[in-house]
Amino acid sequence: MLHILKARLHQKYRTFPFPQQQPVLSQRYTGRPIIKTEGCVPDCSACAAVCPAGAISRSNEGRPIIDLGRCILCRACESACTAGLINFSSEFSMSVSKREDLIVKNDQFRVSDGLTDELKSLFGHSLKLRQVSAGGCNACEADCNVLSTPTFDLARFGIQFVASPRHADGLLVTGPVTQNMKLALLKTYDALPSPKIVIATGACAISGGLFRGNPEVNNGLSDILPVDLYIPGCPPNPWTILDGMLRLLGRI
Amino acid sequence: MKKHLKMQNSACVNLADVPVVDNQQFKDHLVELSSRNCRLSALFVLPGTHQNLIYAVVSNDESAALKLLATPYQNEFASLTPDLPQAHWFEREMHEIHGVNITGHPWLKPIRFQPKTGDNTEILPGVTNYFEVTGEEIHEVAVGPVHAGIIEPGHFRFQCHGEKVMHLEIELGYQHRGIEKAMLRNHPHQNLRLVEVIAGDTTIAHATAYAMLIESLYGIDKPDKNAELIRAVALELERMANHTGDLGALAGDVGFLPTSAYCGRIRGDILNTTAVICGNRFGRGLIRPGGIGCIVDRSIADIVLERLVAIEADLKSAVKLLWDTPSVVARFEETGTVSHEDAIAIGLVGPAARACGLRTDIRYSHPWGAYAVHQPELVDGRKRGDVYGRAIVRWLELLDSLRLIRIMLAEFTDVSTASPVLTKAAPDSISVVLTEGWRGEVCHVAITDSAGNLASYKIVDPSFHNWFGLALALRNQEISDFPLCNKSFNLSYCGHDL
């Protein structure tokens, strides 16, 4: 007994006071991209050519557009752009309510303004989520799991991952939705009582990510389930996920 | 006539130099090798225009040489499994992907339920005949693919007598994303990213294997000493993070919450240490053919070393509680035992194998990069083979990883990013790379065609070898021990399903 208490004293209180304070991420952390609108070199598509996820296209004005729903935040475009138009900031808050809000064209970005007032009043102080991995590589899953550790202590916000879809208010999906998991995913969704919400976590769940176009997968949730929150990244940082969930509930 | 071709880990050889022997010689030779400390690292089909060939990659835990051999097949192929049980999963894979009719295989079923090309009928994974035990008071329990926690999908079918599990059959495939096929369609810069997500928790081990393959096939200079050191440090951090998470999860599964809570957090501290090096907690973008993908200087190395001081103190405080708490030790001991003989027969790898007393560790037997100089301590699980064995092996490896990182970073000065690959791959060649991920042996094999393009890419995640080990561990256990046994293996679903 004493050795357990001694360890408890050693391990200290570690819960970070988010959202009152902002966490300090690693200096090399890659956050939301910002695109400068002046100075793009005509006929240069170096950024798109190096993008492993096919996330970059060009606007009518010839400037780069990054689809954050496909971007894996690898920074290859940042290094490839000789004009220095693309910069990845250290901003980890980048979850959105609408798919089109993930299309980054400049320095503007519209983070999620949350659920409707009715759903906020229903789920705002108690949100139970059922997680389904549908081809996730275990990185998004790991960064969801970590939210239940003392550092994040998800339960203090009334948010909890539950075992049964019958007990859940929403589904948090990771992975590109493999053909082999589609049925199980739909059955799990059907088992949730209404009203229910869906959170797409990670580039795979949003767009298929690096597996987009493979015949074995479904390019994410887009044609499969209605999505209430998109959390981009490959995988999203745990703070990005927590920030997104709290914004969804109107608590940030 | 030569029965096999000997090659070193990550060497590139001419495909025509691999001896092609007849089916009987192939079988006899593999069986003979397996009796001499050799294991089947990969067994796969290379479809050809003239003849289809089955290739075997055999590794020896006591010598650095790999052995390659091949045999032709028409439509039928006599199963190796009755004489070489570790071939069973590979043969099921060959049957599923290439339609090889493996005669005499005891349980020839698909392992991934892959959608067939040109066939639009819907595949329903897990809908299949299961091994059934019948009789009075026998009942069946089906679990998954959606499980209770935040965990990947798989289906488990238990045949029980009362609480006792007589047999567990594991059906996977729900995570199949078509990675091996995509590798052949993609550009190299896309493949580098794709191998990082074969199993997201094993990013460094898979990416290192891929980078070594590309270096070998494209004839690129080996990375410099500092780059090799950072690659190895990242691999050891990956091992530490996952072993820490597993020890915490094992504590959670026996209801011992202190270690469970502490290790969950410490795992995050270790992942954040990887992020100090490359910005990503899982090491994405860190490994690149020819070296590494970020600039690392002495100041970064010093931050890593400084963080490890706190991590070590927290880890020792958290994990020591496990061994000092009798109720934990009692639950771990003699639960989910795999015998030494079974472990050898089915070709277990990694900590699960070492827990059974197998002296297998690729860092030790086939050292690459920094491991050629800095050898790990080979952890000996003393043939325990139970949950306790798998837990204690992880703990000893964690401590050794700490030691390795410190001596490696003591030598480190600084390193810049590797330049892009501009050369072309050698034509008609084969290269094999083994690395030791935290779950065990990672094997990547690439074969090029006459134009130097990838003709075949084979990935064997350690989970491929070890899932059957979990099934064996459950025999004669209480069904309520399943979560604990499962966690003690903690295998990858996506690494298996590819």
Specify the helix fraction band of chain A.
10-25%
Global Rg of chain A: 19 Å
If strands are numbered along the chain, what order do they take across the biggest sheet of chain A? 7-6-8-9-10
Q: What class, by secondary structure content of chain B? A: alpha+beta
In quaternary terms, these chains amount to heterodimer
Indicate the percent of residues in helices of chain B: 40-55%
CATH T-level fold name of the largest domain in chain B: Cytochrome-c3 Hydrogenase, chain B
CATH architecture field of the largest domain in chain B:
Orthogonal Bundle
Mind explaining what this structure looks like?
Chain A is of the alpha/beta class. Chain A folds into two domains: 33-92, Alpha-Beta Plaits (2-Layer Sandwich); 117-248, 3-Layer(aba) Sandwich (Rossmann fold), CATH 3.40.50.12280. Helix content of chain A is 24%, strand content 15%. Chain A has helices spanning 2-11, 46-50, 76-80, 117-123, 139-145, 182-191, 202-207, 238-248, and strands at 33-35, 56-58, 64-67, 86-88, 103-104, 127-133, 159-161, 170-174, 197-201, 229-231. Chain A has a five-stranded parallel sheet with strand order 7-6-8-9-10, with helices on both faces. A three-stranded antiparallel sheet of chain A has the order 2-3-5, with no helix packed on it. A two-stranded antiparallel sheet of chain A has the order 1-4. In chain A, a hairpin with a 5-residue loop joins strand 2 and strand 3. Chain A is globular. Chain A starts with a helix and ends with a helix. With 498 residues, chain B is an alpha+beta fold. Chain B folds into two domains: 5-103, 2-Layer Sandwich (Beta Polymerase, domain 2); 179-460, Cytochrome-c3 Hydrogenase, chain B (Orthogonal Bundle), CATH 1.10.645. Chain B has 16 helices and 15 strands. Chain B has helices at 23-34, 88-98, 179-185, 188-196, 203-217, 225-253, 257-278, 298-323, 326-332, 340-346, 350-354, 362-365, 387-411, 462-473, 482-489, 493-497; strands at residues 5-8, 12-14, 38-46, 52-60, 63-73, 76-78, 101-103, 138-143, 155-161, 164-171, 287-288, 291-292, 429-437, 440-448, 454-460. Chain B has a four-stranded antiparallel sheet. In chain B, helix 5 runs antiparallel to helix 6 and helix 8 (298-323) runs antiparallel to helix 13. The two termini of chain B are 37 Å apart. The mean pLDDT of chain B is 92. Chains A and B meet through helix 1, strand 6, helix 5 and helix 6 of A and helix 3, helix 4, helix 7 and helix 8 of B.
